[in-house]
Amino acid sequence: MLDPKILEDLGAKMSALLANSPAKDIEKNAKAVMSGFFSKLDLVTREEFDIQAEVLARTREKLKMLEARVEALEKAKQS
């Protein structure tokens, strides 16, 4: 997985280099190329990741509760 810090550093260095040059069009083109590259990586935002992690945690809790309930019902049936 790509480290976000490395990507931020790369972007900052590119911005610093381009700020010192008169070629603003190059900056726009570089941003477009990088955006295209990142869109192909099928990345999600941190917010989307956090939401899905919460959904997964709730689902796991519900599964544990249901497993316990099934086990209790099976024990009651055997008795």
Topology (elements, then pairings):
Elements: H1 4-19, H2 24-40, H3 46-78
Written description of the protein model:
With 79 residues, the protein is mainly α. The protein has two domains: 1-43, no CATH class; 44-79. Helix content is 84%, strand content 0%. The protein has three helices and no strands. It has helices at 4-19, 24-40, 46-78. The protein is rod-shaped, with a radius of gyration of 25 Å. 0% of the residues are buried. The model has no long low-confidence stretch (mean pLDDT 85).
Percent in strands: under 5%
Mean pLDDT over the residues: 85
Terminal-residue CA separation: 52 Å
Number of helices: 3
| Domain count | 2
Overall spatial form: rod-shaped
Low-confidence stretches: none
Secondary-structure element sequence?
Answer: HHH
Helix content: over 70%
Q: Biggest sheet, open or closed, and with what strands and sense? A: none
Computed CA radius of gyration, to the nearest angstrom = 25 Å
By secondary-structure content and strand pairing, the structural class works out as mainly alpha
What's the total number of strands? 0
